[in-house]
Amino acid sequence: MLKFYFNGSPNPTKIALFLEETGVAYEPVPVDTRLGAQFKPDYLAINPNGKVPAIDDDGVIVFDSNAILLYLAEKTGKFLPANTPKARGELLSWLMFVASGVGPFLGQAVHFKMYAPEKIEYANNRYQYEAQRHLAILDSRLAKNKYMLGDTYTIADMGVWGWTRLVPMVLGEEAYAKFPNVKRLTDEISARPAAARAVALKDKFKWKTDMDDAARDNMFKHLKVKVA
Ligand SMILES: N[C@@H](CCC(=O)N[C@@H](CS)C(=O)NCC(=O)O)C(=O)O
């Protein structure tokens, strides 16, 4: 059975959504990153990047969330756009935009806002600005299209939802007002039963909740290593 290595953070939750939407049988395997489980040799053999998510699909290993979405969509034939060069070009473009832009910039925005040991105004402003710039691009796309690729709900929307459901945490409670189309899509997906199950998956397991020194040592290794 497909093993799904995950925690409750945005990138794994996209995959949980796909698995729940399709009903693909899977075994959830918790990886508690605050305890450092992502650096255990057995897990690094699956994902050398030491992050979640990853899957082991009967010996086929895939890591990086949007690669997993694409792999599973192609394998099952589900949640893909029309099989045309134009639609595939759009699919790849938006999946990569989310993987290389939306995820990293929103992730760093959270880091500098909530976790950096010093408040660095320059870094905070840069990442908040870039997070908003990426969301504005999604918003203008969604002003013209019901879903990221037109009229059909696809893995591109799942990739977006993984991050956009956390907009209030990243940018503040009032931020959705600036991105009404992003909010519309996010709310629509969040209302789906599969999304509720995807978000609730983490609650079936026990996790380290404290962001204490031990958790920081595991998650922010640069704190103890001077490279620059
Ligand atoms: N590009 C990767 C990024 C994965 C990633 O950053 N995962 C985070 C959770 S959303 C993580 O594992 N953080 C734990 C850590 O950095 O130690 C993907 O899209 O899967």
Q: Would you write up a description of this structure?
A:
The chain is α+β, with helices and mostly antiparallel strands and 228 residues long. It has helices at residues 10-22, 41-44, 65-76, 85-115, 121-144, 155-164, 167-171, 180-190, 193-200, 213-219; strands at 2-6, 26-30, 54-57, 60-63. The protein is built from 10 helices and 4 strands. It has a 4-stranded mixed β-sheet, covered by helices on one side. Strand 3 and strand 4 (60-63) form a beta hairpin. Bound molecules: glutathione. Glutathione is lined by residues 9-11, 33, 38, 51-53, 64-66, 99, 103, 219. Glutathione binds at residues 9-11, 33, 38, 51-53, 64-66, 99, 103, 219.
List the helices and strands and how they pair.
Elements lengths: L1 E5 L3 H13 L3 E5 L10 H4 L9 E4 L2 E4 L1 H12 L8 H31 L5 H24 L10 H10 L2 H5 L8 H11 L2 H8 L12 H7 L9
Parallel strand pairs: 1-2
Antiparallel strand pairs: 1-3, 3-4
